[in-house]
Amino acid sequence: MVGIDEIRKLIPLRFFSVVVAALFLYGCATTEVATDSAHELDVAEAIDETAPEFTEEDEPVVFGKLAEPGRDLIGEKIAEKIAESEAEKKAEQEAARRIKGERERLAKVPPVRVRPDRNALAELEGGEKLRVLVVNGRKTIRVNGAEGTGSGVNITRVSDTQAKVKRKVVDLPIRLTPVKEFIYLNGRPYRGVVDIYAGEVGLMAVNELYIEPYIVGLINHEISSKWPEAAVKAQAIIARTYALHEKERTGGKGLDERYDLDGSVLGQVYKGVNAEDNLALRAVKETRGTVLTYRGKIALTVYHSNAGGMTESSGNVWTTGYPYLRSVKSPYDKGAPGYSWQYPITPEKLASRLKRAGFKVGRPESVTVTERTRSNRVHKLDIEGSDEIVTLSGKEFREAIGYDHIKSTNFEVSRNGNLFFFTGKGLGHGVGMSQWGAKGMAANGYTYKEILRHYYPGTRLSRVD
């Protein structure tokens, strides 16, 4: 071991006192720490996680101070660094809170909705056309604004192939073309042309129009055009993509060769031009022709109201699992309508609805969730009844009891006396984009590209003619 005298010979006089002080402090520190291994671990963790590394510039300051009895100068320096880091972190958090508060304030001040001018959508005409089922199951449809209908006519189904118009029986289908801008069906205006068919029950009306005006009319039925612009643009893109995917799904022939997609909640909600406004028009114009693709093909961009905190993988809901429709976190769903819900039902009503759906269990005694998915949704459940025990998927159970009652498959089951209680989170099937989650992301500064990238990972933005 090298002694003090040997060190004195090796080091110039002006540095000798500094070295001696450093050795003294080092001995004190090691003696103190050695008696308490837990303290040693605490200091190590503090250095690893929060304190910045010391530099050569720091050392003379630390070791240059006079050591006072009982003082740990190194510990004091670490504490100072940690305090500075925590102060900076608090300042950053406060600034972030102010920015978020301002964004929330602005989000609560909705833009003014203004109907587009009569010819505002003319430049969006052209390209792909869609055939949308807009009326279904009505025995009689009132028509105004179409050629040959005068001041208005009733079209009434009389058979699978014929209808009555002005006391005259005519063959179906009937094509209606507008005299001016719109055709009115039961008082609701539609762009383009309308074909009237015989449905399984009553009449069907199919509206054929260009895809971009269709998206403009759809926005305010699916979300609100007053939402942050990024969310509205994201909705426009996935609605366009979904419509084209459905059109291509059966080779362009449509679901039954008469229409491409349903205009109700079974497809995308479209009810003509009444919901068009300039905010929706702007979002559609600025994303015109933009779709999401996966490996060169148009993606299936399904969506729902809110995911209850996490979306679901498509393979847990339908037969096909798409790589880009996998479970992702959706933290901005909180506060959305239907985020939390509860549905009470008696055993008798539960039995009745199960029987109507083809599941005969007798009087239900218990409902037990046996398997959940990664997103906490019910994958399988057992219903023990007086007659037998049946196993259903979460999707089958929701369909049997009713979508309006069991709002998602993310639920818990309990029983209190003569009531079963289903308590859950989320609204909808949970696959793809959460509309309220997208709104929250947009309000917090995310772009529509970031929203789409989050909810449809692996897809690309592409253009279609």
Please summarize what this structure is.
Helix content is 34%, strand content 23%. It has twelve helices and 22 strands.
Describe this structure in words.
Strand 12 and strand 13 (297-298) form a beta hairpin. The chain is globular, with a radius of gyration of 34 Å. The protein has 465 residues and is of the alpha+beta class. Among the domains are: 4-83, no CATH class; 340-425, no CATH class. It contains 12 helices and 22 strands.
Order the strands across the largest sheet as they lie in space.
5-4-3-2-7-8
Mean pLDDT: 84
First-to-last CA distance: 83 Å
Instruction: Tell me the overall shape.
Output: globular
Biggest sheet features: 6 strands, antiparallel
Helix content: 25-40%
How does the helix and strand content classify structurally?
alpha+beta
Per DSSP E runs of 2 or more residues, the count of β-strands stands at 22
The percentage of residues in β strands lies in: 15-25%
Notable features of this structure?
alpha+beta, 6-stranded antiparallel β-sheet, single chain, 465 residues, 5-stranded mixed β-sheet
List the helices and strands and how they pair.
Layout: H1 4-10, H2 13-34, H3 37-49, H4 58-63, H5 73-107, E1 129-138, E2 140-144, E3 153-157, E4 162-165, E5 168-171, E6 174-176, E7 183-185, E8 188-190, E9 193-198, E10 203-210, H6 211-222, H7 229-249, E11 261-262, H8 278-286, E12 290-294, E13 297-298, E14 303-304, E15 340-345, H9 347-356, E16 364-372, E17 378-385, E18 389-393, H10 394-401, E19 411-416, E20 419-425, E21 433-434, H11 435-443, H12 448-455, E22 460-463
Parallel strand pairs: 1-11, 14-21
Antiparallel strand pairs: 1-10, 2-3, 2-7, 3-4, 4-5, 6-9, 7-8, 9-10, 12-13, 12-22, 15-20, 16-17, 17-18, 19-20
Helix pairs in contact: 6-7, 6-8, 7-8, 7-11, 7-12
